[in-house]
Amino acid sequence: MNLRRSAFLLIFGFLLMVYILMAMSHSLFVIQRIASLQPLGRGVEVRPLREVRWVEVPSARFVQTGDWIRTGPQAGAELRWADGTRMVLAPETEMEVRKSHLNRLNRSETSLFRLQRGKVWTWVRRLLTSDSRFEIQTPGAVAGVRGTVFSVAVEENGHTRVAVLEGRVSVRSRWEEWTLWSGQAWETEARRVRPLSPSEREEWKRLEERQGPPLNLESPPPRWTLEPFLQLRGSTEPDAFLFLNGQPLALQPQGRFEARVPLRKGLNRLELRAVARDGRESRLTLEVRRLAVDTPNPEQD
What we know:
The chain is mainly beta. It has three domains: about 1-30; about 35-210, Jelly Rolls (Sandwich); about 215-300, Immunoglobulins (Immunoglobulin-like), CATH 2.60.40. The chain has helices spanning about 1-30, 200-210; strands at about 30, 35-40, 45, 55, 60-65, 70, 75-80, 85-90, 95-105, 110-125, 135, 140-145, 150-155, 160-165, 170-175, 175-180, 185, 190-195, 215, 225, 230-235, 240-245, 245-250, 255-260, 265-275, 280-290. The protein starts with a helix and ends in an 11-residue tail after the last strand.
């Protein structure tokens, strides 16, 4: 009896150790992708993970996995990630960031969103790896991409509409699966692929004209660090003007930039701003916390 009990405890202890090691390896290699949320007008709200109340967003802030975003009748919102991925939410839109993380081992990304109502335009400029997922789920369908420019809308009657400006989008509904290419659209009500309408193309044209220069970082900065400096590397339009916390930042050929940013202890807020020669501009806000040597790792809380 004692032998069986000892064997059971030995096996249980081994399995527990394996589980702990797997959890530790996951936390070491899988990091959250944090997005910068910029309100476009008054009436943008966020409901953070595990919260029940909505909080108004008067200025730029960060959103992450589990956060809900909604826009009012006179307001839109823009989400930007460090790799250049960009989403614009139309007025009266409600969306959840279900998952957003990066696996540093195989460089795969997982970005999952739930669009409850409204419309969102999305730019995924980089070709994602075969292990990556970028999906927008609606009550009637799921749109998945590998690298493209597209929009997803949920109408008042609950029907889903997907329109592709560039690239390819796979759409799954309860009945079937479709592949949409550049210049095509699909609706749950019609259940067929059609060309983009002139009004849809005009809508994209207006969005592109208002879009500021790209702001792409080679890799997302850490949420916390013990180092006194942060190395930023990325790119924007070659003829744009670039500023870091209001100070000019020199551009290299092809629009590349590099900066060694000193970090004070505690929370550091960094704002990159790119201004095109015609006045269009883009902003990317980052937050990095520099820890003291004896400060606990915040990821373990």
